[in-house]
Amino acid sequence: MLSFGLARFRTGQFSNELDVSTKQLSDGVSTVRNYNLAGRTLVNSSLPDGGYGVRFDLASPDKFKLFAVVNAAAEILPKGTSTLSGVDLKSFCGLNKATVTTLPCQGASWNNIGNYLEIIFTPPGKILANFSDTGTYQYVGGVIEHQRTGQKAYFYISLTSGLITQGLL
């Protein structure tokens, strides 16, 4: 009975790591969106001319970075690198429909957009997705996976409102 209880505890602990990482991703996107909306200044008291963004890269699948765009170059924000605990980014995708009817990166509606996803909230109030695919998307998102259990979660961001949605697959 003790081994059954311990197994259930470990499964719950791994599930919690996935939940925490998904929330961490959501908080990162919300942070840069809010920085832009609030007109947050940099350390030198200037506004970034290109806005604020978040960068996801499968080359570093357990990390993402928050940055400011200054003179067309990305400057990582202080404490702007976040590490995901026990979770890896697995894929990125885009949807060119006005309504989400399937989960991100599931089915024919979502297009794979490669190994890199950057979302930038610009000062005039636009939201840009910067990646190698030149498609026009209403939503971009991705899938993350727990390293030990293989359990997956998703996130997607509206390029109209900047709101992020997340959950378990």
Provide a descriptive summary of the structure in words.
It is a single chain. The chain has one domain (2-168): minor pseudopilin epsh domain (minor pseudopilin epsh fold, 3-Layer(bab) Sandwich), CATH 3.55.40.10. The protein contains one helix and ten strands, in the order H-E-E-E-E-E-E-E-E-E-E. It has one helix at 2-38, and strands at 52-57, 63-70, 73-83, 87-95, 110-112, 116-121, 127-130, 139-146, 152-158, 164-168. The strands form two sheets. The protein has a five-stranded antiparallel beta sheet with strand order 3-2-1-6-7, with helices on one face. It has a five-stranded antiparallel beta sheet with strand order 5-4-8-9-10, with helices on one face. The protein is globular and about 45 Å long.
Defining traits:
minor pseudopilin epsh fold, five-stranded antiparallel beta sheet
**Strand count, sense and closure of the main sheet?**
5 strands, antiparallel
Strand residue content: 35-45%
Helix fraction bin: 10-25%
Taken from the alpha-carbon principal axes, the silhouette is globular
> Would you identify the CATH H-level superfamily?
minor pseudopilin epsh domain
Taking the alpha carbons of the first and last residues, their distance comes to 30 Å
CATH class group = Alpha Beta
Strand tally:
10
How many domains? The number is: 1
What structural class do you assign from the helix and strand content? alpha+beta
CATH architecture descriptor text = 3-Layer(bab) Sandwich
Number of helices: 1
Oligomer type = single chain
The stretches of 5 or more residues where confidence is low (pLDDT under 50) are: 4-12
Helix-strand sequence:
HEEEEEEEEEE
Question: How are strands sequenced across the largest beta sheet?
Answer: 3-2-1-6-7
